[in-house]
Specification:
The chain is α/β, with parallel strands linked by helices. It has a 7-stranded mixed sheet, with helices on both faces. It is globular.
């Protein structure tokens, strides 16, 4: 297994965990096919071997949503960014099992990837679903959705490209909405403003599948680049 990770980029989320034998085997045998190493600018046409609409999912977890989108939209290319290595192994297994050739994976912190590896104006969409909310006030600075990150993400989108966020923690949802509404390069896709009425192409989370208790919910935000 030869997975490059830039240790100069600070990552607050968990990066390791128990690897099943299947996940370890996938990392050992499939990374060379689906994984991207290095730290220089990426030529995505060369990486995917074609020119197509390009989408990034940041923090794809175990890869269920990313694999679903790739299967539903073979005309698109997807780049998944995740630091949690068991999740990377699980996604690699699924890509092989379902013969999905339109996904590539980077194991690194998304802030560094967007800052140094993705060309401006090259993406059709960026997705960040259920990032760690860091609920304690002293940890709020660790939240990935901040003005600096949002401005960087907007620069990578083409005009009309979308930024889709989702969280099941209402205080973070309100923070996200404030940050996105404060970014001059974005416009809310929801005609009435505020949160999106549904998850769009996003698969329901396990939380949604279990049903909701009073006061619970999932908040989606979809904005596009002006």
């Amino acid at each position: 297994m030869n997975i490059h990770a830039d240790t100069s980029i600070k990552t607050y989320g968990r990066t390791s965990g128990h690897l099943t034998s299947g996940q370890k085997s996938a990392l050992d045998t499939l990374w060379r096919r689906y994984g991207i190493n290095g730290d220089g600018p990426l030529d995505l046409d060369w990486v995917f071997g074609r020119h197509a609409p390009r989408y990034i999912e940041i923090g794809f977890g175990m890869g269920t949503n990313l694999a679903h989108l790739a299967s539903a939209h073979p005309e698109r290319d997807y780049l998944g960014i995740e630091v949690y290595i068991p999740g990377v192994g699980s996604l690699l297994n699924r890509l092989q099992r379902e013969r999905l050739g339109n996904v590539r994976v980077i194991r690194n912190d998304a802030r560094g990837v967007l800052g140094h590896r993705i060309k401006d104006g090259s993406l059709d969409g960026i997705m960040v679903f259920f990032p760690d909310p860091w609920p304690k006030k002293r940890h709020h600075k660790r939240r990935i959705i901040q003005p600096e990150f949002t401005a960087r993400a907007v620069a990578k989108l083409r005009v009309g490209g979308t930024l889709h966020l989702a969280t099941d923690y209402e205080p973070y949802a309100l923070h996200m909405l404030e940050v996105l509404e404060g970014e001059a390069g974005l416009i809310n896709c929801t005609a009435t403003g505020g949160f999106a009425p549904d998850g769009g192409e996003r698969l329901p989370s396990k939380f949604e599948g279990r049903g909701r208790s009073p006061g619970d919910g999932v908040w989606d935000l979809t904005f596009k680049r002006r």
